[in-house]
Design goal:
The longest helix has 16 residues. This protein is 35% helix and 27% strand. The chain has ten helices and 14 strands.
Length: 303
């Protein structure tokens, strides 16, 4: 019989690997989610984020490494872990033949919410998702943002200690994304532990206490958004605009004086200006950001 061990982390991964044939999706991932915090997995498509989520929910089994969720080792105690965990999938898998309320009722049974508390649990979830006035409409009548809020409410029906969200705002327009952010922020404020995979820079910077940048299946950096920016991009950046020849010269000057650069299409960003050992080109001063860090560490623009 598997017993629960004391936890300081809601989630802990060490040396986790997963391959699908010749495709190495996760290649030695270490990850911690301290209790009561929101941790973001930030990376491009194909970085291994969704595979990591699938391993946490026992949809696939790690080839190597150790995974603990709420103190339970996976996959041996997956059932016990899932009972205290809520999952928001990337793909909308709501039952479109049912109403919003009925979808929640079904999951209140699946998560074994006590009979006496089911009505209140469903009502609380509807209120959280701001869907009380649409509760008895079929899912097909709900907008994309409403459906996404319903997915989050469904994951919270049993008051989980940990919520795992796989790209929670993918495919949503900016206004709806802000609504989802407000909901996630409220969960964090209430002390719910959250692991959120995303490829939106602003989302990670806005919501996460800690950001782990992943590339090619492994973590390449981690820390608070502010600390990551300070460590990798510095306190000030310089943006140089102009035709290709001007940008190439700016890069040459930056390299000559030991300053890091990143090309952004129509401009060149000069970072870590504190390391400059010579004159810099003319440009516009700005604050560095998490996108600068992401591109520096992964070499990939983010969608």
């Amino acid at each position: 019989m598997t017993t629960q061990t004391p936890v300081g982390s809601a989630l802990r991964l060490r040396g986790v690997r997963k391959s699908f044939g010749d495709v190495h999706a996760v290649t030695g991932l270490d990850l911690d989610v301290p209790e009561g915090t929101c941790v973001g997995l930030l990376g491009p498509n194909g970085a291994g984020k969704s595979t990591t989520v699938k391993m946490l929910t026992a949809q696939c089994i790690a080839d190597a490494g150790t995974i603990e969720v709420l103190g339970y080792p996976l996959p041996a105690a997956s059932k016990s872990a899932r009972a205290q965990m809520g999952v928001v999938p990337q793909q909308d898998n709501l039952d479109v033949t049912l109403t919003a309320r009925q979808n929640l009722i079904v999951f209140s049974h699946l998560y074994r919410v006590p009979r006496a508390g089911r009505r209140d649990a469903v009502q609380r979830a509807l209120e959280l998702a701001r869907l009380t006035d649409r509760a008895d409409e079929k899912v097909t009548a709900l907008s994309g943002g409403m459906r996404r809020r319903l997915l989050i409410a469904r994951a919270l029906i049993h008051r989980p200690r940990l919520v795992v969200m796989d790209e929670p705002t993918v495919g949503l327009d900016p206004q709806v994304r802000q609504e989802i952010w407000a909901l996630i922020d409220a969960l964090r404020t209430d002390g719910v532990s959250i692991l959120m995979s995303t490829h939106y820079i602003e989302e990670a910077a806005r919501l996460c206490d800690t950001v782990v940048i992943v590339s090619h299946g492994t973590a390449v950096a981690g820390g608070s958004p502010a600390d990551l920016v300070t460590e990798h991009a510095g306190a000030e950046a310089l943006e140089v605009y102009g035709p290709p020849a001007v940008l190439a010269e700016a890069e040459r000057q930056a390299a000559a004086c030991g300053v890091t650069t990143r090309r952004t299409g129509t401009s060149v960003s000069l970072l870590r200006l504190d390391r400059a050992t010579g004159p810099l080109p003319e440009g516009v001063r700005r604050d560095p950001n998490l996108e600068d860090v992401f591109v520096l560490l992964t070499g990939e623009e983010i969608a």
